[in-house]
Design brief:
transmembrane helix, disordered N terminus, 0% strand, transmembrane, Exporter of polyketide antibiotics, mainly alpha, membrane
Length: 543
């Protein structure tokens, strides 16, 4: 084996077979690429005419600018230079509202893509089969990055076309808008390629990539709020600092993105030559010789395996809740500078601005908490396909013990992270107001039945249609779309009603419906039962 590898290295070169690998990887990921690119570009295409119709005049855009000028709002959107250009440019308003979110989704796409084509293939031994052929050592990494580069260019081009109908810029503005997203994709593809060399499993590699994304959003938000240098520590911040569709529009911040992406790619290629195949640069921590008494059941083992994900969720949602709490704490001061018409923009059910803000933040916290539950169910499918679950299933374990144990683990993770986020929001935003603290806490609890429905649906899809992993992402993405962008996009009522969160009401801005909560809880229970039935009826897919 070593002799064959040496012959390939010396005779064919470490990039031998890259072209064939590229065609193979494009074929494997064609549906992944299609749905992600279509989703991000299609969503952007939908928002462009909506924002243009909602704020058609300079006066309306200037009024809306007053609601977006506070540090709290800038931290969740972008630099204040965009706000200054609202009146003269619909494109500036659009870019300010969208770049943070579309760049974040772009980053998630490229983290998942590069991990799938590098570390995940090694973990499942697919790369081992491929490397038995005359393929160079760096060919699979090179092909993965070429796929990522092509996808980034295509995505940027489609986003440029989507933004081409906006007023307020010149012919280069939509191109810059698309290039800003291409740059984010290239940076996170490179960073994830490095992460794939450092870790020895796909989940850790993905975790590193998403941690880089979280830090990027945090630094961008902190820098935008106060106009400080912290924005320059964020790949998303570099794209925001292009000031696209404003009079201060500039291209050169993307040079920073290009330099970081190139440096990350160089480092990834350097690291792949200094590690053993199937291993990471960071050695795995040695486990105990004998398991603890509490790990003698499949359910206990499952909770142990997802412990890292649980802690990640707790820390992430706590920070998110505290960050939103700081915004909520300044809501009254923010409202004092608004006219009645401007306050109406942010109104939820006629409640005061603090309750309206609290309602929005509680919903976003719930969506993020549901995401961690979805990730836990996804871990069940990974354990099944890589063969580790086969070792557990070979013992005297019922289907409800494994892989059915991932449902209670997912429900626990989503519930805990939602509660932590709610407590962080209440602690940071109530300002000693016991009544508001209690309302935020109750509002957080009200979200739980909808979260359970999402998790139970994802589990049922895993049980009955395990190969259609995109269903769990479709379910979660739709809930995010309804909660955060439903009103903006004027979605029809039947489309909104598909999301369980649409049935909760807007507590604490409005009253919640107790019968609706009971029905959602019952639906979650039925979906969970359907999932367990599916597990008993299908064969486990070990490959």
């Amino acid at each position: 084996m070593a002799t064959a590898a040496a012959e390939i290295e010396n005779g064919l070169g470490t990039l031998a077979g890259t072209g064939k690998m590229l065609r193979f990887q494009l074929r494997r990921t064609r549906m992944f690429l299609f749905w992600w690119i279509a989703g991000i570009a299609g969503f952007t295409w939908m928002v462009v005419p909506v924002l243009a119709d909602q704020y058609p005049t300079e006066a309306e855009r200037a009024g809306f600018a007053a609601t977006m000028s506070s540090p709290a709002m800038l931290s969740m959107s972008g630099p204040v230079e965009y706000v200054h250009a609202y009146a003269a440019s619909v494109g500036a308003l659009f870019s300010h509202r969208m770049i943070l979110w579309t760049c974040a989704m772009t980053a998630v796409m490229f983290v998942l893509l590069v991990t799938r084509l590098t570390r995940a293939d090694e973990e499942t031994s697919r790369s081992e089969v491929i490397r038995s052929l005359p393929i160079g050592r760096r060919a699979d990494l090179a092909a993965a990055l070429l796929v990522g580069t092509g996808a980034a260019v295509v995505l940027g081009g489609l986003l440029a076309l989507a933004a081409s109908g906006l007023d307020g810029g010149d012919a280069r503005s939509p191109v810059l808008f698309g290039a800003a997203h291409t740059a984010v994709g290239l940076v996170f593809a490179g960073l994830t390629a490095v992460a794939a060399q450092l870790s020895e499993n796909a989940s850790t590699s993905t975790g590193y990539g998403l941690a880089a994304l979280g830090a990027s959003v945090l630094f961008a938000g902190a820098g935008n709020a106060e106009g400080t240098w912290a924005t320059w520590l964020s790949p998303i911040g570099w794209s925001q600092l292009t000031y696209v569709y404003t009079p201060e529009e500039r291209w050169w911040p993307l040079l920073v993105s290009g330099a970081v992406a190139a440096g990350a790619v160089w480092l990834a290629f350097a690291l792949v030559a200094h590690r053993d195949f199937g291993q990471g640069m960071f050695a795995a921590r040695r486990g105990r010789a004998e398991a603890k008494a509490g790990l003698k059941s499949a359910t206990a083992l499952t909770f142990r395996l997802v412990r890292g994900l649980i802690w990640t969720g707790v820390v992430t949602t706590l920070l998110l809740g505290l960050a939103y709490g700081s915004v909520l704490g300044g809501a009254d001061d923010f409202a004092d500078g608004l006219s009645d018409a401007q306050q109406a923009i942010l109104d939820r059910g006629g409640a005061d601005l603090r309750l309206s803000f609290a309602t929005t933040f509680i919903s976003i916290n719930a969506i993020v908490a549901a995401l961690f539950g979805v990730l836990v169910v996804g871990r069940a499918r990974r354990e099944e396909t890589v063969g580790r679950g086969e070792l557990i299933a070979a013992g005297p374990v019922a289907r409800s013990g494994w892989p059915g144990s991932y449902l209670p683990a997912a429900l626990f993770t989503a519930t805990l992270t939602n509660l932590v986020a709610g407590l962080g929001l209440a602690a940071g935003g109530s300002g000693g107001d016991g009544d508001l603290f209690g309302k935020i806490t109750v509002g957080t609890l009200v979200q739980l039945p909808a979260i359970w429905v999402v998790i139970a649906f994802v589990f049922a899809a895993f049980a009955w249609l395990p190969r259609l992993g995109w269903l769990r992402w479709l379910a979660w993405t739709w809930t995010l779309l309804v909660v955060y962008f439903g009103a903006l996009l004027n979605l029809p009522e039947w489309a909104m009603a598909i999301s369980p969160f649409d049935h909760l009401g807007n507590y604490p801005a409005e009253d919640f419906s107790t019968p609706a909560l009971a029905v959602l809880t019952a639906v979650a229970a039925l979906l969970a039962a359907l999932g367990y039935l599916g597990l008993r009826r299908r064969s486990l897919s070990f490959n």
